[in-house]
Amino acid sequence: MQSKATTVDQYLASLPEDRRAAISAVRNVILKNLDKDYEEGIQYGMIGYYVPHKVFPAGYHCDPKQPLPFAALASQKNHMAVYLMGVYGQPAQEQWFRDAWAKTGKKLDMGKSCVRFKKLEGVALDVVGEAIRRVPAKAFIAHYESVIRPPDKKAPGAAKSKPAAKKSAAAKKPAAGKKPAAKKPAARKRA
């Protein structure tokens, strides 16, 4: 559920007291562990943590006007959530996160990047803090660029190969109204 708030303070003030306390506690852990190159603000109707344009001018590929999202914190209709893009799409980071959470004995309700919770007691705050601390902005940008941008084909030492020409399915079909050419049976070899 996207908030209409334009500042973090407005966002927090709009929450019921119990949710405000839980979101504020998770926020404090994030801020305590956040690399100096990230910024906090409102992004996509949530409290967002992102790489600002002054650090990464290209911005988010889906909307370059937006800074590159790294994490977010939100009060949704049926739960609260912390979104961790530093865990998403990185199997080693995700495995570390799941293992570390399991060691706390708390139940993990996780989607691709979001960790859902109903009460603060359900959050492994130390694991969330470590997940934030483990991914400084420079490392996050490097991973992001490696996934989003194709490798430079003219890089020194890159193998020069031409892709094999493949006919598309449309190119293999005969033109409308024409019958495909009959295939000739293969000649049999005599023994």
TrEMBL record:
Residues 156-179 have a biased composition (Low complexity). Transmembrane segments: none annotated. Residues 150-191 are annotated as: Disordered. Coiled coil: none annotated. Pfam families: DUF1801. SUPFAM superfamilies: YdhG-like (SSF159888). Residues 180-191 have a biased composition (Basic residues). Residues 19-134 form the YdhG-like domain. This is DUF1801 domain-containing protein. It comes from Archangium lansingense.
